[in-house]
Structure formats: C-alpha cells, structure tokens
Specification:
Elements lengths: L4 H30 L6 H24 L1 H6 L14 H8 L5 H21 L5 E2 L2 E2 L3 H25 L8 H6 L25 H20 L11 H9 L2
Antiparallel strand pairs: 1-2
Helix pairs in contact: 1-2
Subcellular location: Nucleus
GO molecular function: RNA polymerase II cis-regulatory region sequence-specific DNA binding; transcription coregulator activity
GO cellular component, one term: mediator complex
Amino acid sequence: MALPQDHIRAIDQLRSRLAQLSSSIAHLKGQLESNDPLPSWPTLQAASTALGSHMGELAQTLNAQRQLFTSLHPYPLPSFPGNTQEGLLQQLLRKKPEPRAEEWIEETLKIDAEDEKAENGVGVTRGTAAIPSDDETRDLWEWAGATTAGKIVEMEESGLLDDYYSVKERREGIQNVVTGLKRQLDDSSSAGGTPKSEEDVKMEDEDESKEDQKLTEIGLDPSKPPMPLEQLLRLESGA
C-alpha cells in the first residue's frame, strides 16, 4: 500500500533535517580535528548556534508528525541487498532504541519530569540532594557572596594570600611539606616575617641563571614563550 503524499513529504522533511544536522556536526568535527590552533571562540559559538538551530528544527518536525513516525514500520523490498547491508537492515527493522540510547532517553525524561514538578511547586529531590527554589538559591548566593568576601579581606589583611604555604601546612609544620622545588622557599618573606636580604635575592638570581643555562645546553631557549595549551593537548592525544 502506497503512502499518501503528505506522509511522503513529512518523511522527506525529516530526512532533510537529519542531513542538515549531520552535515553541521561533521563540519564542526572537521574544524576541531584539522585546525591548528583551534577555531576561535566566536567560530565555535556560531557553530554551536547552528547545531542548536538544526536540532530545534528537527524536534519541531518530529513533534509535528509524532503519530506518523511512531506508527511507521519499514519493510524491505525483495531487491534490498540484505547480504551486504545486513547492519543497516537490522537498524531499520529495530523497533526499540539501542540500550545506551534508551538509558539516556529515560534519564532525560526523568529529569524533565522532575523539573516540571519543581516549576509547579512540588518538592523534588534529585538523587540525595533537594532542589532549592529560586528564592532559596538567591538567598544562598547573597549569603555566600558576603561571607566569602569577608573571608578574602581577612586573609588578605593577614598576609595569608601572599604566603608560600597554606594554612593547613603552617599548622602541621612547613618542614614536612614536599614542594618538589630544588631551592628552599624563603619562609621569612611571608606570614609576618622579615623581607629577603640582598644576598638571598642574588642567590635566587644565580639559581635561575643556572637553570636557564641548563635549558640552553639541551637545545631549549628559555626566552621563548611556553607552548600553547591547545598544542600540548594535541601532542598528548597524538592528533
């Protein structure tokens, strides 16, 4: 039995939406894999906006013909190359989502239901933590902001922010701290101690000069800026 023309148009529209979304994803993936350095933030934001637009159009198409798409069942013709396209045939004939897709669909529907209950004023808990209301969230941020600002001012006035060591390390004894540095940190330069002497500063400069000389001997130029993080990540991943 042949499908009506409006059903054929709906299926063709769905195919077009899926093709647009697939093309946008492939384009963004190609940019991330081939560009060095990575695309600029405005470019990524524009690509993200395009993806969101295509997904919105796809969702509208699915919702507009929900009854049609949920009732359609494909039947391969005898001429379909089932021997060479067995994987595609099984996907087309599959009536339930794949297990991994089914899991995130159920999780998304559960979160949407909880959010809807929260909007209606119904108490909801997600996991073990309760979801606060807008007023509770606003009160929390107002309290946290004022409290944190006061703590920061107190730490700055006491010199803790300029200290080499944390409060916990000071409390437990800095002699037990493993810094990983070859030189010893000057304990007198912070936490209310006396400033560094000219001799200490001179020794630190000599140590830095020796480190630069070692880098030069192995073929590194210490005057050059460090390698960008994006390039380091590419080298690490083998891209």
